Automatic annotation (TrEMBL):
It is a multi-pass membrane protein. GO terms for biological process: transmembrane transport. PANTHER family: INNER MEMBRANE ABC TRANSPORTER PERMEASE PROTEIN YDCU-RELATED (PTHR42929:SF1), INNER MEMBRANE ABC TRANSPORTER PERMEASE PROTEIN YDCU-RELATED-RELATED (PTHR42929). This is Binding-protein-dependent transport systems inner membrane component. Belongs to the binding-protein-dependent transport system permease family. CysTW subfamily. Its main location: membrane. It comes from the Bacteria. Gene3D superfamilies: MetI-like. It is found in: Cell membrane.
């Protein structure tokens, strides 16, 4: 009996600890999403309608959706191409924690400040054009291009890709690499058959951390790409701040929330299958 009483008391105490967590989820996750869904059911005149959802599936918004997914894919792919070798090198350095801190430090700086810094770096009289002029190439239009948008986005998201990949590489048993080399595997075969499969969970987590926020970028598209790159995030900003069509803006936001939730669920399901396997 005393043991049962202690178990009941521990269960009650755990339930009390869940109250702050549940309140946080309800106030800052469930309530905002419910509010966005509510606004999506009204047109610009405040009348209840489902026309916003029908309007979303018109060619204009479908092209915008494809563009958002394309740029998010590019940003994620380039981030992975840079982050994986960087994370691998970090695991081989002596002062890995110091180097990791230096990589993380830029993420503590305000996003707007970093974006404005690139306006100066890529500007007509900026550092990059000064170098190009010195080597004889001449000034180039770097700002307001797809290149500048993808470059700045990759720079901003790099730490979020490096961290999970670095953690996955750190958890990997190094004796497996030695065993592969002892069996005659080349460096490329070792990477393809041993290293990458064992760190795929970190790659998935990094891609998720980059791809999801990259879908809804809007400030960088305006400042760096000069609105040449139109994404769903840009459309949401325009509808809320310019056209005042909150219903259409909320409808696009609902679509983004659904897509992000699907990506997270699919990633979670795969992880569960891997653990069960």
């Amino acid at each position: 009996m005393p043991s049962r009483t202690r178990l009941r008391m521990s269960d009650k105490s755990r339930n009390w600890y869940l109250i702050p967590y549940t309140a946080w989820i309800v106030l800052f996750v469930v309530a905002p999403i419910a509010l966005v869904v509510y606004y999506s059911l009204f047109d610009i005149e405040g009348k209840f309608t489902f026309s916003n959802y029908a309007h979303f599936f018109t060619p204009v918004y479908l092209r915008m959706t494809l563009s958002s997914f394309w740029y998010a894919f590019l940003i994620t792919a380039f981030s992975l191409l840079v982050a994986y070798p960087a994370a691998y090198l970090l695991t081989r350095t002596k002062h890995k924690q110091l180097w990791l801190l230096l990589i993380i430090l830029p993420s503590w700086i305000n996003l707007l400040l970093k974006t404005y810094a690139f306006l100066g770096i890529f500007g007509t009289y900026g550092f990059v054009n000064a170098v190009l002029e010195t080597v004889g190439i001449g000034k180039q239009q770097i700002l307001f291009t797809d290149f500048s948008f993808v470059f700045v986005s990759v720079y901003i998201f790099i730490p979020f890709m490096i961290l999970p990949v670095f953690n996955a590489l750190e958890k990997m048993n190094p004796s497996l690499i030695d065993a592969a080399r002892d069996l005659g595997a080349s460096s490329w075969t070792t990477f393809r058959r041993v290293i990458f499969p064992l760190t795929i969970s970190g790659v998935k987590a990094g891609c998720q951390a980059v791809f999801i926020p990259a879908l809804s970028l809007f400030m960088i598209t305006r400042l760096i790409a000069g609105n040449r790159v139109i994404t769903l995030g840009t459309a949401i900003e325009q509808h809320f701040l310019v056209t005042q069509d909150w219903g259409m803006g909320a409808t696009i936001a609902v679509f983004l929330v659904v897509v992000m939730a699907l990506i997270m669920v699919l990633t979670g399901n795969r992880k569960k299958r891997e653990v069960q396997g």
